[in-house]
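2024-03-11 09:14:02 DEBUG pipeline.ingest accepted 1 chain
2024-03-11 09:14:02 DEBUG pipeline.ingest length=455
2024-03-11 09:14:03 DEBUG pipeline.predict start
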Amino acid sequence: MTRQMVMVGFLQAQNCTNLPSSWRHPDSRDDSMSADYYQEIARILEAGKFHMAFFDDRLAMPDRYGNDHRHTVEYGIRCVKMDPIVVLTTMGMVTEKLGLASTCSTTYYEPFDVARRFATLDLMTGGRAAWNVVTSVNDGEAHNMGRDQHLEHDLRYDRADEFMEVVLGHWDSWEDGSLLIDKKSGRFADPDKVKRLDHRGPFFKSRGPFTVPRSSQGHPVVIQAGASGRGQRFAGRWGEVIFTAARNLANAKQGYDAIRNEAAKAGRDPDQMFLCNLITPVSGATKSEAEDKMALIQKLPLEIDALSLLAEGLNFDFAAKGIDEPLTTEELQGMQGMLGIRDGVLRTSGKTNPSTRDFVTFSGRGQTADAIVGGPKEIADRLEEMFAGRGCDGFVIAATYVPGSYADFVHHIVPELQRRGLFHKDYAGKTLRENLGLPRPAAGAWKTSPRIAAE
């Protein structure tokens, strides 16, 4: 079968998209705390045959800049953060085939809880759920969840590895065929096919038995987005859909090959995973129309947007230094969280000790510099180049305003990608795995990796 793109809608259960200034757009809906807001997005994405609607999430509003939340609230910088899993249930009610994915942290939840939440969502949506596995990024989240500080970077991933083993172990607890529901005999399920996990490890203890049977797709699809070396090893071991954020084909290919190599080292088939690169399209019927839209969008971001998101993402208070003062090597090494941002700034700026202004300029955080602007041909050409050049297997579509950005992409770009044979014209099945082309996992299949078997 001809290789085709995977398409994901990038959402937040908050007052703006991942672009903090999106709420300021005159055409953005201002009822982002209503079910109808998200249901309209869901209908648009399903009409465009998107594989998934995906929610990013944090457990704190950005408040690391100046160690204060006032700027966040005043300027609407991701200050509202609702529970995305609850929001997904409302979207599931108005769709039939759109995959429904959410972030949930391995650092601040218990494995049984996460396993049950997503297994329930999977059943309630007919096998359309996916879990984005994250380790969280900053001290604000730690403080909200009863901790004094955020865990060290690699330790978070060590803990997350065991977290995955517990979650997958619970998801495997009910074998296929365990449900009998025989009213005549009075037997609901076969107890020989429901096992206790009895896990005891360095980080977790979890007994079981699990309380949610397997869904029609087996268990939720696992998403990951690790960008550091340790994050890529984690993604290669566990991820089925991997989110990346390369800014050009050369960097995309490097990351693509690195994660696929990690998957091969873990004993997995790299062709059974999909790497989807984040893009921000600004599209119209023509390039001129798209440029007019972009001219308005470019007026919306504020410098504080970038400063706030940089401080949040790197768990570092950029307000502590002058904006043009070079950061010391010790300060750079002390950054945590999304270290791919730091490494990208060092690489792109070419400076050993960049300033805060360099971070604003070269990171792209809170800005629109990386937007792809054009009509159907221009945007499809860019996507085809990265896809055909094996920089990714699909795209995560970010919005500059809601719901217009998604509607524009579905109306203008999707038909052109379909015309070129790069994107499917309809869903292959009902479950997310069917639509991605992923096999339904057999219970315990994840344990067959040589790396896992040795541990």
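2024-03-11 09:14:41 DEBUG pipeline.report The chain is about 40% helix and 15% strand.
2024-03-11 09:14:41 DEBUG pipeline.predict end
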